[in-house]
Amino acid sequence: MIRAVVLLVMATTTACGAGAGPAHAPAPATTPDKVVMAPEPVAVQPTLRPSPRHLDRSYRAEPDLVDPGAGGVLRIKSLGIRAPVDAVGLDGSAMAVPDDPGRVGWLQSTAQVDDSSGASVLSGHVSDERDVPGALSRLNEVRRGAVITWAPPGGRRYRFEVVDLHTYPRATGVPAELFRVDGRHVLHLVTCARRVSTAGGGFHYTANLVVTARAVPG
After folding, report:
1. What is d(CA 129, CA 117) in angstroms, rounded to the nearest whole number?
2. What is the pLDDT, as a whole number, of residue 115?
3. Short-list 94, 71, 97, CA closest to 84
4. Which stretches of 89-145 are assigned E, i.e. beta strand?
């Protein structure tokens, strides 16, 4: 079964929004956004296609939707990534993402780090609107077999092995099955991809990169 499904990842993070002015350095393409939930019925495929509101402009999360540090710490040693994980909720019908590009958000209605089944969904920025690299700026360089560790506050590290990478157009969203509540525990990391430069030195992203990793027993 798939629980009330997150239907559409829309561009609503600063990394996935617009950048104005000259870009200081090309940021590796990658980060997500707003995720629309279908109340009922449960479905494998999205049943609603709202118009994305942040494909070419920046998003700011409401402070009460972000619980700093409540998700612990995420590490990808092969990429030199170490980022605090904030627990986040829904901004209306969308997933909130921390404003700080150096942090990652975990949608707390998805699986917890130590759950034995279901999917944990985490999202972070590839850069901010000034093109300062974010926590997941190098996520597009990850390779299958790479190890991701996720440690809750005060807890042991849980290991996940990367098994798949997919890119989806931001205008149409990600597949609903990414938010399953059954099956082997997996972790989905979402960030922006396919950077597009605009007149005057601005930029935005047209896709979402989803990196999937399976929990490693033990």
Report:
1. 36
2. 96
3. 71
4. 90-91, 94-95, 104-107, 119-124
pLDDT on residue 88: 95
Instruction: Determine phi and psi for 14, rounding to 5 degrees.
Output: -60, -35
Cα separation of the two ends of the chain:
26
Domains defined along the chain, listed by start: 6-42+66-215 (2.40.260.10)
**Phi, psi (degrees; rounded to nearest 5) at 127:** -165, 170
Backbone angles phi, psi at 200, to 5 degrees: 85, 10
d(CA 195, CA 25): 12
Residue 87: pLDDT band with limits 50, 70, 90? very high
| Whole-angstrom distance, CA of residue 124 vs CA of residue 139 | 10
CA 153 to chain centre: 20
**Helix, strand, coil fractions of the chain, as percent rounded to 5:** 5, 40, 50
